[in-house]
Specification:
Blueprint lengths: L4 E4 L3 E6 L2 E6 L10 H16 L5 E6 L4 E3 L4 H4 L12 H19 L5 E5 L2 E3 L1 H8 L2 E5 L3 E3 L13 H5 L4 H10 L2 E3 H6 L5 E3 L4 H13 L3 H15 L3 H16 L2 H11 L10
Helix pairs in contact: 1-3, 9-10
Length: about 270
């Protein structure tokens, strides 16, 4: 086991192949449901990818064939108890649930492209996790949804990543009905970038990750960050900000190399991210 492979907290596997890191929720018997350890492990994987200059892309997925992630482990994430009996109290449980929000923020602050590799169920928190990634590649057997309403809950914490991925009206309909969406419809709703046969999923993700890893890491970091920031701005404010970012990017080492390579008709050679 090296720093570039192994486990993150026991519930998440982490490995690096070339310039692509993969974080795998390793709870297949529980359909990769999220407990505190799994969320902490994913956050650790994100941080490792962020700190590794050789990693250009992070893939997030789930172990096994049944689920990417079926949501929160209801037996632990929503089990308030008496601290005197060794169970988390209401306040401790409240803070633990905030770990998912911190994971989303960590993914968005990574500065590198993220891909959700989805097979099987991506429900509730698992749906939110997929939507928190930049791109989603799904197998034809993938199923997405927010079933919280069916157990008297509401998908509060995943509202933000969902609203960054689909229209408010379509999102609210899924939240109020709790229905599941097949991969083809998810593609139509804009939730998924690519839908592929199950046996093509690994290859499709590897191909996309490899393509992204070959791009300028400086332009990717600056451009990806500005894309998300512009989403929350008004048009005039966004254009002013993006103009400034264009000036910054044109002065970068990667821009100089990319333009030189274009003029010299050769592939560019970029430094580490």
């Amino acid at each position: 086991m090296t720093d570039r492979e192994g486990q993150c907290g026991g519930e998440v596997l982490y490995e690096v192949a070339g310039r692509v890191a993969t974080a795998t929720i390793n709870r297949p018997e529980q359909r990769n449901s999220l407990n505190v350890a799994a969320i902490t492990g994913l956050a650790g994987a994100v941080e490792r990818a962020k700190q590794d200059p050789d990693v250009r892309v992070l893939v997030v997925t789930g172990a096994g064939k049944k689920a990417f992630c079926a949501g929160a482990d209801l037996s632990t994430m929503f089990a308030d108890g008496d601290p005197g009996e060794g169970k988390p109290g209401v306040v401790a449980s409240h803070h633990a649930r905030g770990a998912l929000a911190r994971l989303f923020l960590g993914l968005w602050d990574l500065g590198k492209p993220t891909i959700a590799k989805v097979r099987g169920y991506a429900l509730a928190g698992g749906f939110g996790l997929a939507m928190a990634c930049d791109l989603v590649v799904a197998a034809e057997d993938a199923r997405f949804g927010t079933p919280e309403i069916n157990v008297g809950l509401w998908p509060y914490m995943i509202t933000v990543p969902i609203l960054r991925s689909m229209t408010p009206r379509a999102a609210l309909e899924l939240m109020m009905t709790g229905r599941r969406v097949e991969a083809a419809e998810a593609r139509e709703l804009g939730l998924v970038n690519r839908v592929v046969p199950v046996d093509k999923l690994d290859g499709a993700v590897a191909e996309l990750a490899g393509e992204l890893a070959g791009k300028s890491p400086q332009a990717m970091q600056l451009g990806r960050g500005s894309f998300y920031r512009a989403l929350s701005m008004g048009p005039a404010e966004a254009l002013d900000y993006l103009q400034a970012m264009l000036s910054v990017t044109t002065m970068s080492e990667d821009a100089a190399e990319g333009i030189a390579a274009f003029i010299e008709k050769r592939p560019p050679t970029y430094g580490p991210g």
